[in-house]
Specification:
Blueprint: E1 4-6, E2 12-16, E3 23-25, H1 26-38, E4 49-52, E5 66-70, E6 72-76, E7 83-95, E8 101-102, E9 111-117, H2 126-157, H3 162-180, E10 185-192, E11 195-202, E12 205-217, E13 220-225
Parallel strand pairs: 2-6, 3-7, 5-7, 7-9
Antiparallel strand pairs: 1-2, 4-5, 7-8, 9-10, 10-11, 11-12, 12-13
Helix pairs in contact: 2-3
């Protein structure tokens, strides 16, 4: 494999050529990025990633590897027909130029990318998971009560109340954020040049399915739920 990097964009784009196939492991991606960074002509550019993990826990177990792209995104080259591509063998995340989390994948024509999140081989905090699930249930109850109140107000005033809709949107966002905390597979599908579909799964099935509208102005990319 031989990745291609455009270091002048923000975020930088790391492209896997179509000829190199439809999948890549986290370790292979890290190796190729380090090879690119070591080239004399590329030494002037800031690092593209940081990596952590693979510490030995016992004779047969190691901590999972995580690659963090720094103001960079991974892209599988555009295709002429619908193609499924996979990233596996660890975790892939990204931060923007200001250090805030962002999607690690750059959308490409006719490409659907699946990222299989690897669970680190460490102690599972079951109490924390139980607390998350409890919080989700409580927020869902609050969401239902808020919807009931909105329905009652609609009957009284006969028209939507924008402020209440903002409240229910905030609660829905909180529910989704908590659910997002324990997904293990993300499927990203480009719907159009300005819209994409994100699906998060856990072992029991789909957790969150939502569509975003994308707006790019200069170096700034924003997304809004559709």
């Amino acid at each position: 494999m031989s990745i291609q990097v455009n270091p002048l964009l923000s975020p930088r784009i790391i492209t896997i050529p179509e000829a190199d196939g439809t999948e890549i492991t986290i370790q292979s991606l890290i190796n190729q990025i380090r090879d690119w960074e070591d080239e004399q002509v590329n030494l002037c550019y800031p690092s593209l990633l940081s990596a952590a993990g693979k510490e030995t826990l016992d004779a047969t177990t190691k901590v999972g590897i995580t690659a963090t792209l720094i103001n960079a995104k991974l892209k599988f080259a555009d295709r002429t027909s619908p193609t499924d591509c996979d990233v596996y063998g660890g975790n892939l995340v990204a931060i923007d130029v200001n250090g805030y989390p962002m999607n690690a994948v750059q959308w490409a024509t006719n490409v659907t990318v699946t990222i299989a999140k690897s669970s680190s081989a460490t102690m599972v905090q079951y109490d924390s998971i139980d607390n998350i699930e409890t919080n989700v249930e409580e927020l869902q109850v609050q969401l239902g009560e808020t919807q009931y109140q909105i329905d009652g107000l609609h009957e009284k005033i006969g028209e939507p109340t924008s402020t209440l809709f903002e409240h229910i949107t905030v609660i829905e966002s909180l529910v989704n954020d908590i659910k997002d905390a324990h997904w293990n597979k993300m499927v990203l599908t480009k719907v159009s040049d300005t819209e994409y579909l994100e699906e998060l799964y856990d072992d029991a099935g789909i957790l969150v399915k939502r569509t975003y509208a994308i707006t790019e102005i200069g170096d700034i990319t924003t997304r809004e739920l559709v």
